Amino acid sequence: MPKSATDIRHFIIAGVLVAITTVLLDLLLKAILPMPVQGSHQAQVIDQLTSWHLTLIAFLFSLVVVIMLYSLFVFRKKDGDESEGAHFEGNTVLEIAWTVIPLIVVFVFGFFGVRALSDVTRAAPDEITVNVTGFQWSWLFEYPDSGVASNELVLPVDRAARMDMTSRDVIHSFWIPEMRVKQDLVPGMTTTLRFTPSVTGEYTVDCAELCGLSHYSMVAPVRIVEQAEYEQWLAERTAGTAPALAQTGDETDADTDVETDADAQSN
Ligand SMILES: [Cu+2]
Q: Ligand 1 centroid vs 35 CA: distance in angstroms?
């Protein structure tokens, strides 16, 4: 703790340097992080939380590194100075401060974390349910309300979607980076993931769990479309499974196999 005017001057200079470094580092981190577009309501909530974490990381890094470098340069041994350094025997105020302040920070972040978690997992009254099956190494999306099965996930924009997911073999993980949310698919149980797409466009669902030799190829197209286009897509698919299959004829053989596989399962 500062005792003399010189000590106070050191604290002020170091404090200002820490503040400047925090701001610069915070700007740098947010500029260089390759975050994809915010594609869902959940993405906004999660990005806000990430942003606060990055600011805290920038501050903690600056606090440690700036004060360390400041001490190294300002309090280095002068030429010819052979005297002993000052002796310290603890500092109760400082020790209480560096215990209580981080504790408060952890509780505050814990509170915002729980609030964000409850926000991104909350059920919506008119949500669309899709049964998702992951297997080595592809995806199957079934729409129980219309009986449609597809290798492509199509969802209307601005409407809550709920993925009820399971796996046929090993653990997989459903991840659309633009939606920010991610959930494992576990054999023998059903896990749920919710998101509300907010930007139309074409995305990709990746498997985010190392699940075997062709894990890298376990991707499926995702299209977020307007409500009318979604209904039209469902209607085309409901009109008859065979034409729908024929339309996907330009996809790879593996994909077609999956369709057949799915039909065999549902029969
Ligand atoms: Cu996988």
A: 23
Distance CA 181, CA 195 (A): 7
Tens digit of pLDDT for each residue in 181-203? 999 999 999 999 999 999 999 99
What order do you get walking across the sheet with 191-195 strand by strand?
148-150, 138-143, 128-135, 161-167, 191-195
- At the second CATH level, the architecture of 128-266 is Sandwich (2.60)
- Name the average pLDDT for the chain: 87
What are the sequence ranges of the domains in the chain?
5-75+90-121, 128-266
Ligand 1 centroid–CA 246 distance in Å is 27
At residue 171, the 3 state secondary structure works out as coil
- 154 DSSP β-pair partners: 223
DSSP one-letter code for 88: -
| Residues around the ion ligand 1 (C-beta < 5 A) | 172, 207, 211, 218
Cα-to-centroid distance, 2 and ligand 1 (Å): 57
